[in-house]
Specification:
Blueprint: H1 2-8, H2 12-20, H3 22-41, H4 46-73
C-alpha cells in the first residue's frame, strides 16, 4: 500500500490544483452568464454591471491563484 502512495505522491499537487480550479471555473461562468443576463434586462446599467462583473471575476480568480500557490507553501509542512 505504501508503494502505491509513494508513486502517487508527486502527482497529488497537480490533482489538488485541478480540483481547486473547478470552483473558480464554475464561479466565473456564473458571474459572466448572470452579467450578460442583467445587461440584457437593463442595458442602461451596463457600466455598473460590467464593473461588478469584473470585480467578481477578480475575486473568483484569486481563489484559483491561492489553489495554485497553496501546495508550494504547505510542501514543507
Amino acid at each position: 500500500m505504501t508503494g502505491v502512495l509513494a508513486a502517487v505522491d508527486g502527482n497529488v499537487t497537480a490533482i489538488g490544483y485541478g480540483l481547486a480550479a473547478i470552483g473558480p471555473g464554475i464561479g466565473v461562468g456564473i458571474i459572466f452568464g448572470q452579467g450578460v443576463n442583467a445587461i440584457a434586462r437593463q442595458p442602461e446599467l451596463t457600466g455598473v454591471i460590467r464593473t461588478n462583473m469584473l470585480l467578481g471575476f477578480v475575486l473568483t480568480e484569486a481563489l484559483a491563484l491561492i489553489g495554485l500557490v497553496a501546495p508550494f507553501l504547505f510542501k514543507s509542512v
